[in-house]
Specification:
Layout: H1 3-10, H2 13-20, H3 24-28, H4 36-45, H5 65-75
Protein name: Helix-turn-helix domain-containing protein
GO molecular function, one term: DNA binding
């Protein structure tokens, strides 16, 4: 699940934190793909309005190949 989708749904990181029972700081430290346990819980507490996508949590998942390619070019 993408953090941007969750923020769009809830409107703020503070509201996300309250819904999950975690600190605002914990949510602010999330990467673009949120922690798997949080995604599962969000799907449950939103009655499926936010969807858990198991493919995002596979070890070899590359969320944005173009961005990763650009990062490789800038590093080299």
């Amino acid at each position: 699940m993408y953090k941007s989708s969750v923020v769009d749904f809830y409107g703020s990181q503070r509201k996300i934190a309250r819904a999950l029972g975690v600190s605002d700081q914990a949510v602010s430290h999330w990467r673009p793909i949120i922690p798997e346990k949080a995604a599962l819980k969000l799907e449950r507490i939103t009655n499926g309005a936010l969807k858990y996508d198991a493919s995002l949590y596979r070890k070899n998942h590359v969320p944005n190949p173009q961005r990763n390619y650009a990062r490789c070019l800038s590093a080299g």
